[in-house]
């Protein structure tokens, strides 16, 4: 059985090598959907009976490890020295990425933020990162 939880964050980024306006400092309303898989809990009378895991706990993990790291912050590529220097002076919430902070990169980052933080028996299957309502990336831990 698979269940999914969505959170939304506001963040800035830039793709300095992009030929389009994506090379500007700009912001997005990011939507992140985590899909987890497990068996429905059968403990009779338990508070998670009939659930893979409580949506509430999945939300808490996503808020702590994704929202609270990037909401109202800025994602900057470690090789983008000029912007990195400016953003580190200006912002207290900065996510420094190994690759340009595309939707693909951020989906992978979010997946790795969650993968080892789920309850026993619950597997993270996929993270979907919407950069805009029309553009998104899916990462399943493999490619
Ligand atoms: N594979 C990727 N391509 C692009 C990425 C990305 O992360 N991965 N990012 C961008 C830009 O940052 C930008 O946010 C996308 O802009 P745009 O295509 O204009 O998005 P819209 O949804 O506003 O476009 P509509 O045409 O209005 O749907 C570029 N490429």
Give a verbal description of the structure.
By secondary structure, the protein is α/β, with parallel strands linked by helices. It has helices spanning 55-70, 81-90, 103-114; strands at 2-13, 26-37, 73-77, 94-97, 123-132, 135-139. Strand 3, helix 2 and strand 4 form a beta-alpha-beta unit. The longest helix is centred in the middle third of the chain and has 16 residues, at 55-70. The protein starts with a strand and ends with a strand. Bound molecules: ligand LPXRUNBV. Ligand LPXRUNBV binds at residues 15, 22, 102-104, 131-132, 134-135.
Quick summary:
With 143 residues, the chain is of the alpha/beta class. The chain has a single domain, classed as 2-Layer Sandwich (Tetrahydropterin Synthase, Chain A), CATH 3.30.479.10. The chain has helices at residues 55-70, 81-90, 103-114, and strands at residues 2-13, 26-37, 73-77, 94-97, 123-132, 135-139.
């Amino acid at each position: 059985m698979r269940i999914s939880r969505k959170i939304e964050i506001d963040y800035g980024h830039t793709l300095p090598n992009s030929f389009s306006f994506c090379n500007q400092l700009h912001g997005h309303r990011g939507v992140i959907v985590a899909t987890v898989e497990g068996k429905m809990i059968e403990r009779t009378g338990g508070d998670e009976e009939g659930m893979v895991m409580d949506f509430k706990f999945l939300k808490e993990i996503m808020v702590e490890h994704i929202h609270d790291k990037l909401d109202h912050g800025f994602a900057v590529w470690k090789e983008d020295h000029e912007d990195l220097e400016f953003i580190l002076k200006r912002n207290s919430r900065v996510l420094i990425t190994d690759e340009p902070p595309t939707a693909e990169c951020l989906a992978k980052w979010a997946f790795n933020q969650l993968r080892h933080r789920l309850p026993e028996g619950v597997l993270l299957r996929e993270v979907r990162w919407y950069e805009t309502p029309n553009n998104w990336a899916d990462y399943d831990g493999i490619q």
